[in-house]
Design goal:
Layout (H helix, E strand, L loop, with lengths): L1 E9 L5 E10 L10 E4 L4 E3 L5 E7 L3 E6 L2 E7 L3 E8 L8 H27 L5 H15 L5 H17 L3 H14 L3 H13 L3 H8 L10 H17 L3 H17 L3 H17 L3 H15 L4 H17 L3 H17 L19 H14 L3 H17 L3 H18 L2 H51 L5 H79 L3 H20 L6 E2 H18 L4 E7 L9 E2 L5 H12 L6 E11 L2 E8 L3 H8 L2 H5 L3 H17 L3 E7 L7 E8 L1
Parallel strand pairs: 2-8, 10-12
Antiparallel strand pairs: 1-8, 2-5, 3-4, 3-6, 6-7, 9-11, 12-13, 13-15, 14-15
Length: 724
Amino acid sequence: MTSLSTWAQVGNEQGQMEIKGSVKGKENYVPISGVQVSTNKGQFTRTNGLGEFTIKASIGDILIVEGPELETVRYRIKSGEDVDVLVEGYGSARSVQTQKREASSSRSALTDHQRFLDSANFYKKSDFEKSIDFIARSVELLGNAGNKRELSSSLRVLGEIYMFHNQYDLAITNFKDALAAQESNRTKLLLGKAYVLNGNYESAISILEPLVRAKNMVPYQRIELYETLGDANMELSNLKEAQDYYQEGLLIAEKNQISPKEIDLSSKIADAFASEDRVIEAEGFYQNSLNLSKKVAPERLIQESEKVADFYNQKNRYDDEIQLRKKNLDELQQLPKSAASTGQGISTRDTVTSQRINYKIANAYIAQDKLDEAIPYLEKSIVEADKDDDLVVQKDATRKLSEVYRYKGDYTKALESYQDYVAVVDSLYVRKEQEISRAARFNREIANTQNRISSLEQERELSQSKYSLAVTEQQLYEETSKRQKWIIYSLIFGIALMALTAFLYYRSNKQQKLANNLLALKSLRTQMNPHFIFNALNSVNNYIAKSDERSANRFLSEFSVLMRSVLENSEEDFIPLAKELELLELYVKLEHSRFSDKFDYEIEVDKKIDVDAFQIPPMLLQPYIENAIWHGLRYKEGKGFLKIKVRQVTNDMLEICIEDNGIGRKKSAELKTTNQRKQKSKGMGNIQKRIQILNDMYKNRVEVSIVDLNEDKTGTKVSLKLKK
């Protein structure tokens, strides 16, 4: 017989509320655990070790209490109230029939446990919260004396859910707890995978290598074991060990005709050979993965083909890459839309989409300097990315299109594309903020759920005599946690505010420094031009003084060509090295026409150098050449020689040497008048300031050194090193 007594605790509540209660023996108040408590609206729970329960319900709902040892009780909820169910005849003197009922109830609980795990797996991909809730219910169902095997299963499935949602730390924690409850090769294999995904490769090898000697693993598990060990060694650059593990896994996959794993392992073996630059072996395994993919599914074939295309790109085989990607693009367009991967949002994962393939084709054309062929593919990529809301590809393709137009000299379209790029970046920034906000909420939900499951595990381990104390401690913990969260959130907000202030201050200083540098450069260039013109006009004046009209006319004609080029480049920080060398050759020619009896000259440029690939500040070398002629060679007894030599030091650095066998810096200084000694060379001073500012802005691209050419202090050598 069952009796029901209620005490109203909270009156006149609206909507859903928490109904608390208990189920106990009437004679001695012994708590009855495992009793099912539900409502007619689908809410469900069971009593814990103290016979207590908490369930959500609304006024008017029917509360149903049922179990193998009591009559089913139905009660209509009238207000927020505690419900106590007292069961007559429940005590220490229970009958054999009662014990049989308990055994039957235990079997039913195990069936429900498996049902909850199946439900959790079903919702793993589509509804994270619901999936975790089923795990919590499966753990709660086990009670304080739950079976360790079932507990291990619950924790393992929980780890798999976290691993699917990229929460690798939580996955590792739960897999370890599952192993603590019960040893299992399956759980160890999952733990090893989680370690690899989390970057703990040594830990993965440590947990998985002992499994190689295990005898009771099914073929698929053993394939995954060798594959995961191969992945860990691959990441640690142990390429030989990685290849051996992949080969072992491939042999088992081929023997058991497990096609998906044959494809995976062939592709990974090819990756390992490609890392060693063993092209022939890599191509062989890539071809094997392609042949196997043709037998599986079209989308899998496209994925493998894209990997091979990436391999061609790494080896600069752009024609092969373009041909293969175009073929993939055609096959991808034949697939139904649901089968093709979409790239919505800001995920950077390299999914196979038409916009990404078009973008990669365009990059291959650009690498070959085929800019006109690249433009249509970039435009297709932008349109398709916009249609699929793939902001990452849209951003990259728009920026690349702007660069292509700029290389072609179409600055109007380059500007339009760049403006589109800025708009996409702004959208991407907004999307990123939204995803960060969602991720923060998601992490809070994960933390709350994990705390719930951890609490259930602790409940299972606590004895009945300590349960009340545990509840009190839990309440204190939640209150303390709430305060700590407020403190932590306040600290985080303060730190974020300070970081933002520091960033804005840093950016403002950086922008101000850049503006100052640009203004200084412009000022120095405006000083350089009159200085150069003044020195050149002195040369014209010298011809006029000698009444050499023909030489003066010729000099003025060549000088006008030089000045036009100088003025055209006067607003640029850098110009192509080829153009600078043309200006220098014209300048030296002009000076040689004046002092042909004083020196000869030679300009030597290494033919292997791609001078168009390097840039140099305009009029940087002219003052050094002017010094060599006017202060070194002009006062030399006999005819001197000026040599300008350009050679390549490294792939990214050139050295330009200006050598003269003149009287040297020491002798030149002695010949200066008292007035000349008081004044420093304006041209050389400007050059030094320009180099200092440009190096500060462009991170040490120009380096100049001046030394005596000979041990007797005669001759001078100027060495200028220029980076790409």
